[in-house]
TrEMBL record:
Listed name of the protein: Uncharacterized conserved protein YndB, AHSA1/START domain
Family according to the record: Belongs to the AHA1 family.
Domain Activator of Hsp90 ATPase homologue 1/2-like C-terminal per the UniProt entry, residue ranges: 19-150
Species, as recorded: Cribrihabitans marinus
Entries under Pfam families matching the protein: AHSA1 (PF08327)
Entries under Gene3D superfamilies matching the protein: 3.30.530.20
InterPro entries xrefs: ASHA1/2-like_C, START-like_dom_sf
């Protein structure tokens, strides 16, 4: 993103149902270890969440290193956190070519028949229409890996019982 003339303002919304309660889905966002295990769906990528300060006013930085394809860095500042209900954050995503997006994202966690519906809305400035599409694909892939992470965590917990 080189100038304000290059900005593409847009909004995207994704809704996903998980077969896990809101407390579990929300909980996956609350620690660096958990986030690092599902936030980057690309096999072989190196993920680091540091610093990680999940609280209102806190800041977390997630760095995803794709080797020869470059490094991506997401910086999130949490404006509101309501356990098992809501995360409101200001996000800045930088890729190998510079700033990809500067947005506000809202994640709402709603109970649904023993599971959880997660509604993510993100709006702001993107480098291009292609950046919006890439962001949508990224969130969708992250939700796939989040679902797998939650199922694996539950299976590990059940195997200990």
């Amino acid at each position: 993103m080189t100038s304000s003339a290059d900005l593409h303002h847009d909004m995207l919304t994704l809704v996903r149902r998980f077969d896990h309660p809101p407390e579990s889905v929300f909980g996956a966002f609350t620690t660096a270890e958990s986030c690092a295990s599902w936030m980057c769906p690309a096999p072989g990528a190196q993920v680091r969440c540091d610093p990680f300060d999940f609280r209102p006013g806190g800041c977390s930085v997630t760095q995803m290193d794709f080797g020869s394809e470059g490094t991506w860095r997401s910086t999130d500042i949490y404006a509101l956190v309501a356990p098992a209900q809501l995360i409101l954050m200001h996000s800045r995503l930088e890729g190998p070519d510079g700033l990809e997006s500067a947005t506000v994202a809202t994640l709402r966690f709603t109970p649904d028949a023993g599971g959880c519906v997660l509604r993510m809305t993100e709006q702001g400035a993107f480098a291009s229409a292609e950046s919006v599409a890439g962001q949508r694909e990224g969130w969708d892939a992250m939700f796939d890996t989040l679902s797998a992470h939650l199922s694996e965590s539950l299976a590990r917990l059940n195997s200990r019982v």
